Amino acid sequence: MRPPSSAKHKLMKTQVAIIGAGPSGLLLGRLLELQGIDNIVIEAKSPDYVLSRIRAGVLEQGTQTLLREAKVGERMDREGHVHDGFALSFLGRLERIDLHALTGGKTVMVYGQTEVTKDLMDARTQSGSLSFYSADDVALHDFHSDHPSVSFTSNGQKHIVECDYIAGCDGFHGVSRKSVPPESIRLFERVYPFGWLGILSRTPPVSHELIYANHERGFALCSMRSSMLSRYYVQCSLDDKVDDWSDQRFWDELRSRLPEDAAASLITGPSIEKSIAPLRSFVAEPMQFGRMFLVGDAAHIVPPTGAKGLNLAASDVYTLYNILRLRYQQNRVDLIARYSEICLRRIWKTERFSWWMTSILHKFSDDGFNQRIQEAELEYYTSSLAGKTTIAENYVGLPYEALE
Ligand code: RFL
Ligand code: PHB
Question: CB of 171 closer than 6 A to ligand 1?
């Protein structure tokens, strides 16, 4: 579909139009701008709204390296917390997964997605690259031709951005994936019959490492943002509303799902954020349509149990950034058609791990059989070096595929 042409439109040109200013869009824009590749970011929400979303907390080493390459790693390295292990809790006990020892020295970094996004926003403001926030009616045009464009309205003014390529970094509910005709895209989906209720509180974390808990009452997760900021989750019903969960009810439920020692040392306080997120596995194939690429949550969703969503978005960005860099610097057009295939290999392995972590840790029914099978599986994996190594390798992040 061609954009509506009229003298009232403000016309702009760029090399890459990026839709969405979440971590995918901002990181891609930053890496491209450092290579001298011009890009414009178009975001539907305001900067404050984007920064108010409390999401991921765990960064794989590959994500950290990419953030450093984007020259936004300084605060992460100063304020982030390196974790060389985490615990699985079941049958009232804790089993530690020693990431460092099991993976030959690899670790993860606890540094919130909000902070990553803020660092990327600040870098973009300083560099002066163009961004439009609070954009309405964002629409993609002609991405199967050599002249794609993006139209939108900002502050009442209609804009058209003509570009070489469009990066659809606009998340699961964005417009990019929906612009593809249904017959050209295959969607794979699994929706889980529960959600996560998460709270943030200004309290010291119950443990210096993350605890993922399997319990007859349902899953629980103890995470953190810093030594005085805790992030906790409990599995809840999809029918639950945030208002059904007073802080007291949340703390009581969390305590009941943790091993005795952890429950006894849990320090509680008022919540400063409380929200419910549904859990989903989702993959769109392919991820490239002519001159348009889907990146991050626009193309795939994982349930948060493996801490993979943001990290998977970063590995898509790594692949697309390098493909575009080689396209502009060496005129390598051959790699463009390989974007989907390269990304999807890593995505499906990560989907598998996230699905598996979800399936062994959550309560799916009142059926005691399922609970016993989960306990046996957790016992087996945590008592076997091979089992623990499998968990550790996946948790620290599978390797990125190099482009040749
Ligand atoms: P985002 O972050 O959703 O950003 C997409 C951006 O696009 C904008 N947008 C549009 N812009 C223009 N036009 C339109 N029509 C648009 N429609 C939407 C949106 O406003 C938004 O700003 O996708 P992105 O950049 O791909 O990043 C993905 C990550 O945000 C996501 O995968 C993670 O947050 C998932 N996740 C976790 N990932 C991890 O790696 N580790 C974790 O520990 C982790 N924990 C989590 C999570 C996600 C959670 N929730 C709430 C879903 C914990 C939770 C509870
Ligand atoms: C978080 O801190 O928000 C978090 C950590 C680990 C997960 C999911 C979420 O697996």
Answer: yes
Peptide bond into 259 cis (omega under 30): no
* DSSP structural state of residue 280: E
Pull the structure tokens for residue 249: 């009810």
pTM, two decimals, is: 0.96
| pLDDT tens, residue order, the chain (404 aa) | 555 555 589 999 999 999 999 999 999 999 999 999 999 999 999 999 999 887 878 999 999 999 999 999 999 999 999 999 999 999 999 999 999 999 999 999 999 999 999 999 999 999 999 999 999 999 999 999 999 999 999 999 999 999 999 999 999 999 999 999 999 999 999 999 999 999 999 999 999 999 999 999 999 999 999 899 999 999 999 999 999 999 999 999 999 999 999 999 999 999 999 999 999 999 999 999 999 999 999 999 999 999 999 999 999 999 999 999 999 999 999 999 999 999 999 999 999 999 999 999 999 999 899 999 999 999 999 999 999 999 999 999 999 998 87
From the CA of 56, the nearest ligand is 1
What is residue 139's three-state secondary structure? strand
Q: Are 162 and 152 in contact (CB under 8 A)?
A: no
Give, using CA atoms, the residue closest to atom 4 of ligand 2.
Answer: 57
Look at strands 108-110 and 58-59 and give their pairing. Answer: antiparallel
Closest atom of ligand 1 relative to the 311 alpha carbon: 40
Ligand 1 and 169: CB distance under 6 A: yes
Q: Any idea what the Cα angle at residue 261 is, between residues 256 and 262, rounded to 5°?
A: 60
Residue nearest to atom 29 of ligand 1 (CA): 310
**Pocket probe mutation, ligand 1, options 48, 111, 170, 211, max atoms within 8 Å of Cβ:** 170
